Amino acid sequence: MATTGAYNRFKRNLAAGAVNLASADVRVLLVSSSYTFNADHNFVSDITNELSGTGYARKVLASKVVAEDDANDRATFDADDLVWTGANFGTPDAAIVYVHNAADAAAELICCLNLTTKVATNGGDFTATFDAVGLLRIV
Asked: Is the overall model pTM greater than 0.90, yes or no?
């Protein structure tokens, strides 16, 4: 996955100290190629073309890690890869990362990750593998 971009609301929240990625309830939803990234999107309700079908559900990120990478002068956010079992919900094009809250439509967006390998689901398992250097890099 490559980071297509971070959403502006997340950038503001990060600068204001209003989000803690290590402790927040961070989740992922998948969209088709019909979704166009727009940094001005703020909430899950702004997302169009979310996938649906057999085996699809929004997923919770587990084993979240925020790290300082002095060798590369950046901070990273990473989590375990995600697996959808019995997946038959089209061809995922991107993963949208967001901070979940009780009103999911008002959940605030973090970033959009382009899935570099486009694989049509056909009833088997679908795995979203995050970049080896992290799901998100802050430079």
From this structure: yes
HSE-CB for 136 with a 13 A CA cutoff: 24
Residues with Cβ within 8 Å of 75's Cβ and at least 6 positions away in sequence, in order, are 66, 67, 68, 69, 137, 138
Upper half-sphere CA count for residue 37 (Cβ side, 13 Å): 21
Residue 58, Cβ density class (10 Å: 0-12 exposed, 13-18 middle, ≥19 buried): middle
pLDDT tens sequence across 75-120: 999 999 999 999 999 999 999 999 998 888 889 999 999 988 788 9
Helical H segments across 5-101, by residue range: 8-15
**pLDDT of 2 higher than 50:** no
Q: Classify residue 50 by its DSSP letter.
A: B
